[in-house]
TrEMBL record, chain A:
The chain crosses the membrane at residues 30-55, 88-111, 123-142, 171-196, 217-242, 281-301. It comes from Loktanella salsilacus. Residues 85-300 form the ABC transmembrane type-1 domain. Pfam families: BPD_transp_1. The keyword Transmembrane helix applies. This is Carbohydrate ABC transporter membrane protein 1, CUT1 family. SUPFAM superfamilies: MetI-like. GO terms for biological process: transmembrane transport. GO terms for cellular component: plasma membrane. It is a multi-pass membrane protein. Belongs to the binding-protein-dependent transport system permease family. The keyword Membrane applies.
Automatic annotation (TrEMBL), chain B:
This is Probable sugar-binding periplasmic protein. Keywords: Signal, Transport. Belongs to the bacterial solute-binding protein 1 family. Residues 1-21 form the signal peptide.
Length: 309, 409
């Protein structure tokens, strides 16, 4: 009853004091000003500037000489761009599913109160402390047929063993994926573990009383309860996918041929290798568009829906 | 009185020298052993004039270094001097008025007369003004062959491309990869350029690269080149290396027969203690068409508001072209000097072949001074795709090559 009483009371009071609404909590608002400025000028302004100049034929330096949609036409007729998009989609889907599944499984295993949990947690999280450049180089060596895994297995006696993903255009993206998963799952595991620890012990007791199996409890009860944790993980993974660049540069430099190119690398090569800013801007605008297309419906469902509900 | 006069004049001298002596930051991407040694010759020469050379080396090659340099220039914090390959890379910086006009220095030192071939200076010239000081000549037009590999296969070292193709199966039987090719796209594009000049002839090459003639790409000369390039792709199977010097060391070790690579590869042979003519052979123009492309490095000088630095920049530009620096720098780097009136201290058989071609005027401009970096990037992408996609036929790549040339600026 008390909660419903506050609702109607605050409502009218706010309508009376409407003019002072902007002045309420003034000091935090002032403190926010730099951030608001950054968001508007750097993020929004920079984005608009980039989109604007993607309609020009800017070379090494930005120039306002309009060419309409030429840059976009060239972009979409470029074989390398198509390959980049396909690669990103493949990497994105596999990395998203792989990271979530492996991350959650590891977290669930650690959550079973095993001995030496802290040791395992550190080991799994450790790769995250390495940059993508280091990760890429390490995995380039591990996957190198003469130095790495293939050679080791052959020395064990299995001489026909062949595992050379980085030199095979068909499966090179999986070579990148292995490195990406190795680097990224540790963090997701930790976030998941924190989520699991947040689950009330009573839930487990109730499930046990009802005679529900452990796996089933995880899938049917725990995972739905961990929705916010999954959303956080999803955002982190998705951001990592879109900006995939340094791993590729360190591990394969887009090779063999153009078979492991990704959009961010296309942008960098066009802008700085090819001295063609317009083309790079067009490509980065398309990247933004892709993110927006995925993000807006999701944000609407996630945040827009709640207000009405 | 006397003492104060002496002190005053002493102070004046100090002031004069300190006004003349400047610290110049020079950015470049020469970081391998031989290259760093060559840069130190430049730095020594500059320091000997009483000025200070502030070294701004960027590791990772031109593709990494150029964006850093450009962003510093555009960002208003330019180095005093920076290295680019002469050609069209600096075109827009010059258009935007960001680089210092060196015409005055060039005229005072008579660059027009001494720089050989003249195309080097042309590459620095825009609207009659000179904007860069060329320091060396590098040429792509070489094939390096391993004597040991051919000895093992029991065939004589080929003297031209067709002999190379004939003997290639023998090498494969002996477990040697006939052609060493690194995985980076610029190497595959560069090798194609060499084959185009050697097998398609200078005329067809000029039509395509200078005239941007797409029909010439579809013509019979280039058809031959694309077919040869497709055949070369088969010869390169079995060796997976990335960097050009890894491919070179395969030739040095004799695990690969030959490599098409610019004259900078010779530095690797020298470093490994190999002797031209006995341990390895070199074929300019693949032994078919003996010409040299004259690419190379040049220094550009961003405009600076400080008059002392501007004076220093001009002094450095003159110094880089001077005979002493040309000899010490190019001897260390293994490149050819940009002036015909100096003698290098160490000249082996291969360098001599290059010098002879230069003397005879058998030179062509470097593709980088004819094609924009944008076009070069597109060609890199196309040729590396072809090289790594066995299903792609020479006819397909020829058509796409023609499309890129047709839209080139």
């Amino acid at each position: 009853m008390t909660t419903t009483d506050i609702g109607p009371n605050t409502g009218p009071r706010e309508t009376v004091r409407r003019p002072s609404r902007f002045l309420r909590n003034l000091s935090p608002k002032i403190a926010m000003l730099p951030l608001i400025f950054t968001a508007c000028v750097v993020f929004l302004g920079g984005t608009l500037w980039t989109v604007l100049y993607s309609f020009t034929k800017s070379g090494l330096l930005p120039r306002l000489s309009w060419v309409g949609l030429d840059q976009y036409e060239r972009l979409w007729s470029s074989r390398k761009w198509i390959v980049s998009i396909e690669n990103l989609a493949l990497y994105g889907i596999c990395s998203l599913i792989g990271t979530l599944v492996i991350g959650f499984t590891l977290a669930a295993l650690l959550d079973r109160k095993i001995r030496g949990e802290a040791v395992f947690r550190s080991i799994f999280l450790y790769p995250f402390a390495l940059s993508f450049i280091v990760t890429g180089l390490v995995w380039q060596w591990i996957l190198n047929p003469e130095l790495g895994l293939q050679n080791v297995v052959r020395e064990w006696g299995w001489t026909s063993f062949t595992f050379d993903p980085l030199n095979n255009p068909e499966i090179v993206m999986f070579g990148l994926l292995i490195a990406g998963l190795w680097q990224g799952t540790g963090l997701i595991m930790c976030i998941m573990l924190a989520g699991l620890r947040g689950i009330d012990e009573d839930i487990w007791k109730a499930a046990r009383v009802d005679g529900i199996g452990t796996v089933k409890t995880y899938i049917r009860v725990i995972i739905p309860m961990m929705r916010p944790v999954f959303v956080t993980s999803l955002v982190l993974i998705a951001a990592g996918i879109v900006k995939l660049y340094d791993l590729v540069v360190a591990q394969t430099s887009g090779g063999p041929g153009i078979s492991s190119e990704v959009p961010a690398k296309y942008v960098m090569t066009a802008m700085f290798g090819g001295q063609n800013l317009g083309q790079g801007f067009a490509a980065s605008s398309m990247m933004l568009l892709m993110v927006v297309i995925i993000l807006i419906p999701w944000a609407y469902l996630e945040f827009g829906g709640k207000k009405h509900g | 009185m006397k003492l104060s006069k002496i002190l005053l004049s002493g102070a004046a001298i100090c002031a004069a020298t300190s006004a003349g002596a400047v610290d110049l930051e020079v950015m470049h991407w020469w970081t391998s052993g031989g290259e760093a040694n060559a840069v130190s010759k430049l730095a020594e020469a500059w320091d000997a004039t009483g000025n200070t050379w502030v070294d701004g080396a960027i590791a990772g090659g031109g593709d990494t270094a150029r964006p850093i340099m450009v962003s510093r220039i555009i960002g208003g914090d330019p180095p005093a001097a920076f290295q680019f390959n002469h050609g069209r890379q600096a075109e827009e910086l010059i258009d935007a008025g960001l680089l210092l006009d060196l015409t005055e220095v060039a005229e005072a030192n008579n660059w027009k007369e001494i720089i050989n071939p003249p195309s080097l200076l042309d590459a620095c010239t825009i609207d009659g003004k000179i904007y860069c000081a060329p320091v060396n000549i590098h040429s792509w037009q070489w094939m390096w062959l391993s004597s040991a590999a051919y000895e093992k296969a029991g065939v004589p070292v080929p003297a031209n491309w067709s002999e190379f193709m004939e003997t290639a199966p023998k090498l494969q039987e002996a477990g040697i990869t006939p052609l060493a090719m690194g995985g980076q796209s610029w190497q595959q594009n560069g090798a194609f350029g060499v084959m185009a000049v050697a097998l398609g002839g200078v005329d067809a090459w000029t039509k395509v690269n200078e005239g941007k003639d797409a029909e010439a790409v579809m013509g019979p000369e280039y058809t031959k080149v694309f077919e040869a390039y497709g055949a070369a792709r088969e010869m390169a199977k079995g060796l997976n290396v990335q960097d050009w010097n890894q491919a070179t060391s395969a030739v040095i070790e004799g695990t690969a027969g030959a490599q098409i690579m610019g004259d900078w590869a010779q530095g690797e042979f020298a470093l490994a203690g190999k002797v031209a003519g006995t341990d390895y052979e070199c074929l300019p123009g693949l032994g078919e068409t003996g010409v040299l492309s004259t690419g190379g490095d040049a220094f550009y000088f961003p405009v600076n508001s400080d008059a002392d630095i501007t004076a220093g920049q001009k002094e450095l530009a003159a110094l880089l072209v001077s005979p002493e620096v040309q000899v010490s720098f190019n001897s260390a780097k293994g490149s050819l000097p940009i002036r015909g009136d100096v003698d290098l201290t160490t000249v082996n058989e291969c360098t001599q072949k290059g010098l002879d071609l230069l003397k005879d005027g058998k030179t062509i401009p470097d593709a980088a001074s004819l094609l924009s970096p944008d076009t070069t990037t597109q060609l890199n992408d196309l040729l590396t795709e072809f090289w790594n996609t066995p299903a792609m036929t020479p006819a397909e790549v020829q058509q796409q090559y023609a499309d890129i040339i047709a839209s080139a600026d």
